[in-house]
Design brief:
By secondary structure, this protein is α/β, with parallel strands linked by helices. Helices cover about 30% and strands about 25% of the residues. The radius of gyration is 24 Å and the shape is globular.
Length: about 425
C-alpha cells in the first residue's frame, strides 16, 4: 500500500463506501484497496478496535472479518491458558487469536490454507511487532510433521461452501472429532473454539479428555464455546460460565478492567463449598463455574408464588444448562422445572444474570392488560416456557419496546400461565 492510498483511506474513513465508489480516484490511489480497507476497518472497529485504528494494517474480505474473534474474547482465551515454549494456531484466519495467544509463548506458528490470508498475516504481525511464523498449509498436513507444542489452538470453520452455518463438530472444517487423537498426541493442551450454537452435551459426547469448557458471553450474548483438552485427563469436566461486561471501546482506552481479565483469585472461588463458591466478579468479568456432574445431583426448590425478586440467569449459564444448580447455589426458588426463572423474598446482589423487582403478577387471560398493565404502554417483553412468543405477547398486550418496564410471560408450578410485571434492579 503506497502512501497516497494510505492517506486517502485515513481521510475518508467516515465516508459512505457506496457513494465513495462512484467517485473518481487520484491516479496513484488504489480504488479497490481503498474501498475494501474502509469497509473492513469499519467492521473491525467494533470487534478489534486496536487493529482497526492502526493505519498500517491490511485486512481481507468481509467473511474472514465476520468470523474472527473479537479482541475481548481473544484476550479472554489468553487469560485461561498457560504459557510455554511453543504454540500453533491451526486455523489462523485474520490472526486475532494467534496474536493474543502468542504473547505467552517463546515460539508461535500461524497456519492457514488461504495464501491471501497468510500474506496479510505476515504483513500485519510485522507491523504489530510480533514474531509469529506464518505457514501456508492445512491443519492436517501441518500436524502430520509430528511436531509437539505446549498449546494447539483450532477454530474450525462453521460455514460450508454454500455459506450455511454449521453446528455439528463433524460438519466443521477441519473435523476436530477426527483430529482429536493427533491433537492430543502433539500437544500438552489443545484449545478448540466451537460454535455458540453447539449443545454442550454434543461436545462432551464427541470429544475426549475434556478438562474444561468455557462458555463465553459478551454483555449477555453468547459468543464462543471453548473446549480445553489435555492428554490422559479423565477427571470431571469443569464448566466455566463467563459474562464479559466491558464495552469494546474500553479496549482502545487501555482500561485496566480489560487488561486484567485473568484476575479472579479469591479463596472462595476455589472452594468446593457451594455456600462459599457461587459466582465471582472481578472488574467487569462475571464467573459461575461448576463440575459437570454438579447439575445432575443438584436439588432445586420450587416456588408456589412469585416473591419480591425475579432472576434470569445470564446467557452463558442458560447455555450450560445449570438450571437446578442455580436454585441450590443461591437459595432461590425455581418457578417451574422448564421455565428457568427464579424468585426470592431477599435480594441476591451477586446473582450472575438480570435481577428484577416484581411490581405485580396475574394469571394470563383476556383481562391481563386491564388487571396488571392498564397504565403501561411500553415494556421489554420476554417469554419463558409460555404458549406465546415474545412478539405475540407484546401484540396481545399492545406494548411498545422499552427498557423502562419488563414483562415476562411464563409458567409456574401447577402449570399455571402467568404474566409478571417488574422493574430492573
Amino acid at each position: 500500500m503506497n502512501t497516497a492510498t494510505r492517506d486517502f483511506i485515513e481521510s475518508h474513513l467516515k465516508d459512505d463506501v457506496r457513494q465513495l465508489a462512484l467517485q473518481k480516484f487520484p491516479n496513484d490511489v488504489d480504488k479497490t484497496l481503498v474501498l475494501n480497507q474502509i469497509e473492513a476497518r469499519r467492521l473491525l472497529s467494533k470487534k478489534v478496535p486496536s487493529w482497526a485504528s492502526n493505519p498500517d494494517l491490511l485486512f481481507p474480505r468481509h467473511l474472514s472479518i465476520e468470523q474472527c474473534s473479537s479482541e475481548l474474547t481473544a484476550k479472554y482465551k489468553s487469560s485461561i491458558i498457560e504459557g510455554g515454549d511453543t504454540f500453533v494456531d491451526l486455523t489462523g484466519g485474520l490472526g486475532v487469536d494467534s496474536y493474543f495467544l502468542s504473547e505467552k509463548f517463546k515460539t508461535s506458528y500461524y497456519v492457514e490454507n488461504q495464501k491471501e490470508l497468510c500474506d496479510l498475516a505476515e504483513h500485519n504481525f510485522a507491523v504489530l511487532g510480533r514474531k509469529i511464523t506464518v505457514v501456508n498449509s492445512d491443519a492436517e498436513t501441518f500436524l502430520s510433521k509430528n511436531q509437539t507444542f505446549d498449546l494447539i489452538f483450532i477454530d474450525p470453520a462453521r460455514r460450508d461452501i454454500y455459506n450455511r452455518k454449521m453446528v455439528s463438530l463433524h460438519d466443521c472444517s477441519p473435523d476436530v472429532v477426527d483430529l482429536q487423537n493427533i491433537l492430543l498426541k502433539n500437544a500438552k493442551n489443545a484449545l478448540i473454539k466451537a460454535s455458540p450454537m453447539l449443545d454442550i452435551s454434543l461436545i462432551t459426547n464427541e470429544l475426549q479428555n475434556i478438562s474444561e469448557i468455557h462458555i463465553v458471553s459478551v454483555k449477555n450474548e453468547c459468543k464462543e464455546v471453548l473446549v480445553l483438552l489435555r492428554p490422559d485427563y479423565d477427571g470431571e469436566i469443569m464448566i466455566h460460565c463467563i459474562n464479559l461486561r466491558q464495552d469494546l471501546q474500553d479496549l482502545q482506552d487501555n482500561s485496566p478492567k480489560v487488561n486484567n481479565l485473568s484476575v479472579i483469585s479469591t479463596e472462595a472461588q476455589h472452594s468446593e463449598d457451594p455456600s462459599a463458591a457461587r459466582a465471582f466478579a472481578a472488574g467487569e468479568k462475571i464467573l459461575f463455574k461448576f463440575k459437570q456432574n454438579d447439575e445432575s445431583v443438584a436439588i432445586p426448590t420450587f416456588a408456589t408464588t412469585i416473591k419480591k425478586y425475579l432472576y434470569e440467569p445470564n446467557a452463558s449459564i442458560m447455555k450450560s444448562g445449570a438450571f437446578k444448580l442455580i436454585s441450590q447455589r443461591f437459595g432461590i426458588d425455581k418457578l417451574h422445572v422448564n421455565s428457568h426463572l427464579y424468585t426470592s423474598d431477599n435480594l441476591i446482589p451477586d446473582f450472575p444474570g438480570r435481577v428484577f423487582e416484581v411490581v405485580g403478577c396475574a394469571p394470563f387471560s383476556k383481562k391481563i392488560k386491564k388487571e396488571l398493565l392498564n397504565d403501561i404502554t411500553e415494556a421489554s417483553v420476554a417469554t419463558r416456557n409460555f404458549p406465546l412468543t415474545a412478539n405475540e405477547l407484546r401484540k396481545t398486550l399492545n406494548l411498545k419496546e422499552s427498557d423502562e418496564n419488563f414483562v415476562f410471560g411464563t409458567t409456574i408450578t401447577g402449570e399455571k400461565k402467568v404474566v409478571i410485571y417488574c422493574k430492573k434492579v
